[in-house]
Amino acid sequence: MFFRRKFAWVIAITLALSSSPSLASRYAETQTIPDATIQLYQQGIEQFNRGQFPEALKTFDRVLKQARKIGDKKLEGTTLTQIGTIYRRLGLYSQAIEFLEQALAINIASKDKVNVGITLYNLGQVYERLGQYDRALESFQGALAIAKNTQNLFLEATTLHNLGQVYDKLARYDRAIASLQQAIAIHQQTGDRKMEGRTLNNLGIVYRNLGRYTLSLQTLQQALAISQSVNDKPWKGTILNNLGSVYVNLSQYDKAMQALQQALTLSRDTHNTILEGATLTGIGEVYRSWGEYPKALAFFQQSLAIYQKRAVKLSRGQFSTILGKYILL
């Protein structure tokens, strides 16, 4: 099933449903689901939240079989969305798309608007990670339309956050800033401090990419303050890494090193090897700027080793950039 072809009518059907006078009553009607199935579904959610993805996958597979056995299409669609989301988190993108597209068709047929939006959002994340940014935009824009139509502020803000990321990657910076600022406003309205800090981090990256380093620094410092106040340890490391890169751009190497060393410690504490690799590259860049070439080379080599060990797919530009640092030593 090709997502691009079906996108327009997915949204048209979903929005049309909101005008149906009997939709609310139909949506409220639920089939009797056995308690054991409900408990199994909750178990899958708990496993997912703990990061136990293989275990959650097995649990939701059992739920899916039971949903099909009792003929509950809404439960089937929701469970397919969960399975697709797990595959996305595992980096198994082909499987993620397969299950999410099945979920999308069922959620539309069962008039489950909320899960249509959630499924489109997850498809957008998969396409973003695959570098298929046009498809990611289509998916996120569809999810955003549904979020607004259903007044789902959490989905709206989260989707705007991701739209901002995609626009940034496409160098459409004005749209990136607008999307991220809208997301921040909703986070402030709902009191979601953690997501406010994370979205400020992304806004700081956009300003950095525009060369507006002072504004980037101010925005990232706001993000850091929030991450500290809510104890968002995983993202605190990411924000510190980004602060370090901005300090490098401003030639403030002492501050850059301080931020990057803190980010490196946090990356190891949280077992975030992707962040660790990026931070090692940043530290190497600082040493190179100081003319301490042997130390710089050692950190660049550590960074490449991590990417190779994790089988991280670097773009040609990223790979050339790291290798180029060796040559420029």
SS-based structural class? Answer: mainly alpha
The coarse overall form would be globular
Which architecture name of the largest domain does CATH use?
Alpha Horseshoe
Unreliable segments (pLDDT under 50, ≥5 consecutive)? 1-30, 322-329
CATH class of the largest domain: Mainly Alpha
Strand residue content: under 5%
Overall tally of domains: 3
CATH topology of the largest domain: Serine Threonine Protein Phosphatase 5, Tetratricopeptide repeat
Computed CA radius of gyration, to the nearest angstrom = 22 Å
Number of helices in the DSSP assignment: 17
Tally of extended strands? Answer: 0
Q: Quote the distance from N terminus to C terminus.
A: 50 Å
CATH superfamily of the largest domain: Tetratricopeptide repeat domain
Features:
17 helices; Serine Threonine Protein Phosphatase 5, Tetratricopeptide repeat; 82% helix; mainly alpha; disordered N terminus; disordered C terminus; globular; 329 residues
Question: Summed up, what is this model?
Answer:
With 329 residues, the protein is mainly alpha-helical.
Task: Please describe what this structure looks like.
By secondary structure, this protein is an all-alpha fold. It has 3 domains: 1-12 and 37-140, Serine Threonine Protein Phosphatase 5, Tetratricopeptide repeat (Alpha Horseshoe), CATH 1.25.40.10; 152-231, Tetratricopeptide repeat domain (Serine Threonine Protein Phosphatase 5, Tetratricopeptide repeat), CATH 1.25.40.10; 248-329, no CATH class. 82% of the residues lie in helices and 0% in strands. It has helices at 3-17, 23-28, 35-49, 53-70, 73-89, 93-109, 113-129, 133-149, 153-169, 173-190, 193-209, 213-229, 233-249, 253-269, 273-289, 293-309, 316-327. The longest helix has 18 residues, at 53-70. It is globular, with a radius of gyration of 22 Å.
